[in-house]
Amino acid sequence: MAFAVRACAPKDLKDIMRLIKEIAVIYKIPENEIRTSEEELMKAGFGEHPRFECFVAEVPPQQKSKEGHTLIGYVLSVYTYSTWKGRNLYMDNLYVMPEFRGQGIGKRLLNRATEAAWLKGCSQLHMHVSSEKPENIRFLEKHGGEDLSAKEGWSLLRFQEAQLRQMAAQSKC
Fold first, then answer.
1. Which of 71, 121, 137, 166 sits CB 3.0–4.6 Å from 15 for a disulfide?
2. What is the pLDDT of residue 132?
3. How far is 95 from 101, CA to CA, in rounded Å?
């Protein structure tokens, strides 16, 4: 199958939102709980100080999806900093539409993100993966990823919006 991986452009954001909504369906997240929008992606990714980096996978029109889409996958990442390791890449999403999986597209997206990270001086790549998707864990392990939950006992914690608001209100700064 012919496909290309390239940097995301503003024209791709409608398709990125479509793919984000596909992922939400897979994880049973109601659409009304998705706070991201095309406008937010534009501001966050293409504003004065971009906060994320994104690469997309695209097929030629003759290989479009059943629904008629040519943008069929993406990887969206942000750069973080580790007090032990310095600059790191955090991959928020690596997604390929199910009908296009198994053809090297996910691997090429992963490689493109890691190439960009390496060129920017990153020492590690991090990503959280649902334990309900063992095939995703296997994909990343096959390409060198380590499951830190199993290997080192690390847990991923999150503070939701309500907790952030409450804690911010209690701050004495």
1. 71
2. 87
3. 9
| Residue 155 phi, psi (nearest 5) | -120, 145
- Residues with pLDDT less than 50, the chain: none
78 Cα distance to chain centroid: 9
Rounded to a whole number of angstroms, the CA Rg of the chain reads 17
What DSSP letter does each residue of 43-57 carry, written as one string? HHHHSSS---EEEEE
DSSP, residue by residue, the chain: ---EEEE--GGGHHHHHHHHHHHHHHTT--GGG----HHHHHHHHHSSS---EEEEEE--GGG--TTS-SEEEEEEEEEEEETTTEEEEEEEEEEE-GGGTTSSHHHHHHHHHHHHHHHTT--EEE----TT-HHHHHHHHHTT---HHHHT--------HHHHHHHHHH---
**Predicted pLDDT of residue 173:** 63
Which residues, in sequence order, are CB contacts of 153 under 8 Å at separation 6+? Answer: none
Rounded CA-CA distance 103/37 in Å is: 29
Neighbouring CB atoms inside 10 A of 151's CB total 8
Residues facing residue 94 across a β-bridge? 75
